[in-house]
From TrEMBL:
It comes from the Bacteria. This is Methyltransferase.
Amino acid sequence: MNQDNDKIINAENLNIDATLEKLSSELRPDETLILDVGNNYFEQTDTIYDTLVMRGYDVKKSFKNGRNQILVTKKQRSQ
């Protein structure tokens, strides 16, 4: 993960559909987006993670500074 290409979105107050829309409009190939989900009260980390995997994103869960995060990278399409 290249820190120069990382963006962080606070996804704690966004609903899942808004989070996915924001992600798809902002994420470029080979760029990593960090979704800061926070405390995960409603299991939204798992729901967002599963949805992103199903849509073909490269996704990893992380826990940093007491907060749940999802690291998302858009896969390069092979030619």
